[in-house]
Write a structure and sequence with these properties.
Strand content: under 5%
Low-confidence stretches: none
Number of strands: 0
Number of helices: 10
Shape: globular
Length: about 220
């Protein structure tokens, strides 16, 4: 149940990141249209967002797969079908509480914005100067973080640094400086994650199963 909860959290977080990236790219549409790489990413982010929304919506309908035997037969042949089924059941469970999903999405957006601001502070501390100043961070970082969030490498290492070098290099930042900025940002997040994990381990409370909370049967 804990693993499934983390997976749902990751899906919601990635959806929020795609929404933020697309919103910022909409604001800077002239730069996006003039850059082939940004145009490709806009299609990738838009398509990814549509797919994830469809998955959440379809999984929220009880018995939707059972009503189409052919679809169910295909799904049952997939590797780790039991895990997929549990993930769908978890989505169904959270779909009963749309207010919780909205709050989670907004919280995730807030976290992503704070992460961007932290990189802005790191850049200022390193005397990084970009062609368009503050706005370049908000244009490129949602794109970088979206791609780095895809599980291609461990914690996005290597992928993220390459993207920093490529994208910030377009606005006058030296390759070595861009890579250093990426690593400083990663270690800053890692540090505060460790602080948060210590706080969690020392202050966590035993909670009833999520299903009991949703159904209103949890003991108070």
């Amino acid at each position: 149940e804990a693993v499934i909860t983390v997976l749902v959290d990751r899906v919601i977080g990635l959806m929020a990141l795609f929404v933020l990236a697309l919103a910022v790219m909409g604001l800077f549409h002239q730069q996006v249209l003039a850059n082939p790489a940004l145009r490709v990413f806009a299609l990738f982010a838009g398509g990814g967002l549509v797919v994830m929304v469809l998955i959440v919506v379809l999984s929220s309908w009880p018995g939707s797969a059972n009503k189409t035997p052919r679809l169910l037969a295909i799904l049952e042949r997939l590797p780790k079908y039991d895990v997929i089924k549990r993930l769908v059941d978890a989505c169904r469970l959270y779909a009963r509480r749309p207010a919780v999903l909205v709050k989670t999405m907004l919280l995730s957006l807030g976290v992503h914005i704070v992460v961007i601001l932290s990189i802005v502070c790191i850049g200022r501390g390193m005397n990084v100067v970009t062609d368009n100043g503050f706005f370049d961070y908000f244009l490129y970082l949602p794109i970088i973080n979206s791609i780095a969030a895809v599980p291609v490498s461990i914690a996005g290492l290597g992928v993220r640094e390459g993207l920093y070098s490529m994208m910030f290099g377009q606005v006058g930042v030296a390759q070595s400086v861009a890579v250093a900025m990426s690593l400083f940002g990663y270690f800053a997040i890692l540090f505060w994650s460790l602080v948060g994990s210590i706080f969690f381990l020392t202050h966590r409370k035993e909670l009833p199963p999520a299903r009991d909370i949703v159904d209103g049967t949890a003991a108070t």
